[in-house]
Amino acid sequence: MTPSTVIEIGRYALEITLLISAPLFIAALATGLLVSIFQAATSINEATLSFVPKVVIIFLVLLLAGPWMITVMTDYMRRLFEAIPGLIG
């Protein structure tokens, strides 16, 4: 196994990680922004107010995007395991 192969495998693993985590991060960011705008408009300064909506939205996004996330992860792992004989020899 050459160093370039190891770098390619690591790069692709990071790409898959970013691809899978992006929907959850974007949902949390959008929810936090909306709650912050609501807090600024109503002068409510409660730090725990943004926690519950973020958890609910992330749970809903996980329910909707979960099958796609598992498919992407299993495809990556399958390709990685299938490539082991070629990487060793």
Report what the structure shows.
The chain is mostly helical. It has one domain (3-88). 87% of the residues lie in helices and 0% in strands. It has 3 helices and no strands. It has helices at residues 3-42, 51-82, 84-88. The radius of gyration is 19 Å and the shape is elongated.
The biggest sheet, with number of strands, parallel, antiparallel or mixed sense and barrel status, is: none
The fraction of residues in strands falls at under 5%
Proportion of helical residues: over 70%
Number of strands: 0
Which blocks of ≥5 consecutive residues have pLDDT under 50? none
Number of domains: 1
Compute the average pLDDT: 92
Order of helices and strands: HHH
**Shape, per Cα inertia axes:** elongated
> What's the number of helices?
3
Radius of gyration: 19 Å
In short:
With 89 residues, the chain is mostly helical. It contains three helices and no strands. Helices cover 87% and strands 0% of the residues.
